[in-house]
Amino acid sequence: AGNHEALVAKLRGALSDFRFEHVLRVEAKALEFAEHLGVKDFEQVSVAALVHDYAKERSAEEFQQVIVAKHLDPDLLNWGNAIWHGVVGAEMIHDELQVTDEDILNAVRRHTTGDVFMTTLDKIIYMADYIEDGRDFPGVDEVREVTFNNIDEGVAWQTGHTLNYLMAKQALIYPKTILTYNAWVAQK
Ligand code: DGI
Ligand code: FE
Ligand code: FE
Ligand code: FE
């Protein structure tokens, strides 16, 4: 539809070529999942994928301003772009792209850290971002296969591997990342 073309044009203008192309590959993969899972609302999947990294190239100052102005959790100020571009980015997507569908905004908020509770849309965006055709890391073909067989197992795979990767480089772990790990990976 015309809406779709207009949104793609806006994102082409807002993002570097490198990121814009990533976003298009995430959209293609997300639509594959949607069809595979029998999800009806392709338009919702499409918009969520297209906007998911909208804020990724914004400055720290811009994120800090939004956190303060919108009274978001002040602890966010202790984090950086990796955490901000989803959680704070959702506010920019709402205000600047007029995306008001809370299911889409939540999928953006959850796309980096996952969450304890995830909707099918959340899982589709979380996994499409991770295994889109441009991604290349050890195990990517395995996780592609796992995810197409069972998207929940894909979510668990990504959550476990991302936490391992972050710990191996002694990165700061955002608390929600640990909560996602406890919910999806840890033996209960
Ligand atoms: O924006 P993309 O690069 O397409 O993908 P993304 O939003 O899933 O971001 C992935 C990056 O975020 C990846 O390098 C790992 C990082 N990340 C995820 N959880 C955490 C984190 N970084 C830190 N420091 N802490 C986390 O808890
Ligand atoms: Fe992202
Ligand atoms: Fe991701
Ligand atoms: Fe992404």
UniProtKB/TrEMBL annotation:
InterPro entries: Diverse_Catalytic_Enzymes (IPR051094), HD/PDEase_dom (IPR003607), HD_domain (IPR006674), YqeK (IPR005249). It holds the Pfam family HD. Gene3D superfamilies: Hypothetical protein af1432. SMART domains: HDc (SM00471). It catalyses: P(1),P(4)-bis(5'-adenosyl) tetraphosphate + H2O = 2 ADP + 2 H(+). CDD domains: HDc (cd00077). Residues 15-143 form the HD/PDEase domain. It is an enzyme of class 3 (hydrolase). The keyword Metal-binding applies. Its EC number is 3.6.1.41. One of its GO terms (molecular function) is bis(5'-nucleosyl)-tetraphosphatase (symmetrical) activity. Keywords: Hydrolase, Iron, Metal-binding, Nucleotide-binding. This is bis(5'-nucleosyl)-tetraphosphatase (symmetrical). It comes from Periweissella cryptocerci.
